[in-house]
Description:
By secondary structure, the chain is mainly alpha-helical. The protein contains 11 helices and 3 strands, in the order βαααβαααβααααα. Strands 2-1-3 form a 3-stranded mixed sheet. Helix 1 packs across helix 11, helix 8 packs antiparallel against helix 9 and helix 9 packs antiparallel against helix 10. It is globular.
Amino acid sequence: MNVVNHSMVSEFVFLGLSNSWEIQLLLFLFSSLFYVGSLMGNLLIMFSVTSNPHLHSPMYFLLANLSLLDLGVCSIAAPKMIYDLFRKHKAISFGGCITQIFFIHSIGGTEMVLLIPMAFDRYVAICKPLHYLTIMSPRMCIWIFITAWILGLIHSVAQLAFVVDLPFCGPNVLDSFYCDLPQLIKLACTETNRLEFMVTANSGLISVGSFFILILSYVFILATVWKHSSGGLSRALSTLSAHITVVVLFFGPLIFFYTWPFPSSHLDKFLAIFDAVLTPFLNPVIYTFRNKEMKTAMRKLCHQLVSYRKMP
């Protein structure tokens, strides 16, 4: 029997985003600005909702939870990407890589689930306003929160089950700035076609299915409003526009990552930066841009913080 002595991989090396110093500087400024903006914007929404009694409603409860998830999304890969930009050796330990994958899929899966009850919340508010507080009760909101996290964790554990026991004994270079399953599986010292298909079936089909469910739900809401009152259609469309924009921004990169059959490293990296840094920043901007109650509460909180700092 011939025994082959394979050395196990203890770390993975990222190729990063660019070797050009000018582009790296631009990426550093861009990423740092939007990362700090994501942190501040989502924290401001969370504190505004919790501190203002006028925002203690199902819609704002779900929005605060979305901001909590966006805080997690922007903190998974962006800090290390910013830290690695000017480093020659961009590496992550095997355990760190697995941890990144776990949080990417647990938080991403939870957000994917949460967007569906947010669409249902808008359906009830627009189509059944008299029954809104009965249907979207505090108990229902808590169950939505718990269910979203449980399903997100199940999704993440199911994904990790594909890679935890894979043998990594040779190549350890990832053409990316963070760890995710499609790139990692290709480095395994075994046949990976079946595993790649399973990852696509798990993440890809779930992403596509959830996206179409959400889009169809918004179309149904608009059709229902138009059927009962054509004058209310523009108001409903104005209310739903923020939700539809967030859904497209969130699911667009995911569907491309897991279902596009012709991978392109440059486009993958661009969408990955967009997904890791820009989307968590844009979500609070989109949801608060046309929401007077939210803007009033955020201004009130900012004034309170300024007044508190001025106190002796």
